[in-house]
Amino acid sequence: MFSKTKSFLLVSLYNKHPEPADIKGNTLLEIIWTVVPTLIVIGIFFAGWDSFRALRNAPKDSFQIKVEGKMWSWKFIYPDGRTTNELYVPVGKPVKLNLTSVDVLHSFYVPAFRIKIDAVPGMETYAWFKAEKVGKYDILCAEYCGVRHAYMLSKVNVLTEDEYTKWLKSDNKITKVDQILKKHGCFDCHSTDGSILVGPSFKNIYNRDVVVLEKGKEYKIKSDENYLRESIL
């Protein structure tokens, strides 16, 4: 190995290095590989820009619905003042949703319509869509918002034009008690069918035996008017 290395060095001493020379390029080729990719990128940009504008600019004749997110439900407010916990829209008509949140950050997500937009406290965002097929579609919250985030679910009810007109003209058959409970968000933690959520169910809650903890000891008392009033207030 030593002898081979020495031989290589001796040969290198007697061989002259080639003279440096300028390497001439190909002007036409350089223009092609610069201009063509630039034109492709510009074309992709404008194609994407048109799609973005179509996504963000709702048609002027869009049906306007206000959406309020709160832990852990959605409320939909229609132009006539009625409110629902599920969204009702006509098929084939553009619908613009004006979103906000009354507490923490939420994200309104309808996978079937490929729309997802944040509902932010103190500001209004918007999204629009046009449902092409009658049916029911899931609404989710895509932003973690607390212990019952996974249960912040609702539905988009897409109706025919005649069905939607009848729905708008129909009475909102909700009892006064239900209206109060929904207004104050009671259904987020309590049920009316006996199922246990974050808090106890309202079913048969009046004058039943309940166990309370006071100073480390359990007591059984009746849920009378005073107990319910103090629990609520």
UniProtKB/TrEMBL annotation:
State the species of origin: Calditerrivibrio nitroreducens
GO BP annotation list: ATP synthesis coupled electron transport
Q: Catalyzes what?
A: 4 Fe(II)-[cytochrome c] + O2 + 8 H(+)(in) = 4 Fe(III)-[cytochrome c] + 2 H2O + 4 H(+)(out)
Cofactor names from the entry are: Cu cation
Q: What does the record say about how the cofactor binds?
A: Binds a copper A center.
Identification of the protein by name: Cytochrome c oxidase subunit 2
> Could you confirm whether the keyword Translocase appears in this record?
yes
Q: Which EC number(s) does UniProt give? A: 7.1.1.9
User: Could you tell me the keywords of this UniProt record?
Assistant: Copper, Electron transport, Membrane, Metal-binding, Respiratory chain, Translocase, Transmembrane, Transmembrane helix, Transport
How this chain sits in the membrane, per its record, is: Multi-pass membrane protein
The protein's GO terms of the molecular function aspect are:
copper ion binding; cytochrome-c oxidase activity; oxidoreductase activity
* Location of this chain's protein in the cell: Cell membrane; Membrane
Q: Which family does it belong to?
A: Belongs to the cytochrome c oxidase subunit 2 family.
TM regions (residue ranges)? 31-49
Domain Cytochrome oxidase subunit II copper A binding, first and last residues per copy: 60-170
> Which residue intervals define the domain Cytochrome oxidase subunit II transmembrane region profile in the entry?
1-59
Q: Which GO terms describe its cellular component?
A: plasma membrane
Q: Which domain of life is it from?
A: Bacteria
Please explain the role this protein plays, according to its UniProt record: Subunits I and II form the functional core of the enzyme complex. Electrons originating in cytochrome c are transferred via heme a and Cu(A) to the binuclear center formed by heme a3 and Cu(B).
